[in-house]
Amino acid sequence: MAQAISSKHSRLGGYYHSSSFKMAVFFTVLLSIGMSALGYFTHYFSRGHLVYGTEKLIDASLENLVPLFKDDASGDKEILSGAGTGGKLVVLLDGAGTVLGGNLRRLPDEAAPLTEGTVLFKDAERNADYAAKIHTYDDGRRLFVAVDITDMMENYRFMQRLSLLGILLMVVVILTSFMISTFVVSRTARIARTAKNIMDTGNLSQRIEIDSHWDDLSTMSMVLNALLSRIEDLVEGVQKVSDNIAHDLRTPLTRLRNHLEVLRKSEVIAMSPEASERCDRLLAEADHLLATFNALLRIARIEAGKQTHNFQDVHLQKLLHDVVELYEPLAEEKGINILCDFMPVTLYADRDLLFQAFANVIDNAIKYSPASGQIDITLSQKDNVRIVTISDRGIGISKADKEKVFDRFYRAEASRHTSGSGLGLSLVLAVADLHKARIDLLDNTPGLSFQITF
Question: Is residue 4 part of a domain?
Answer without folding.
Answer: no
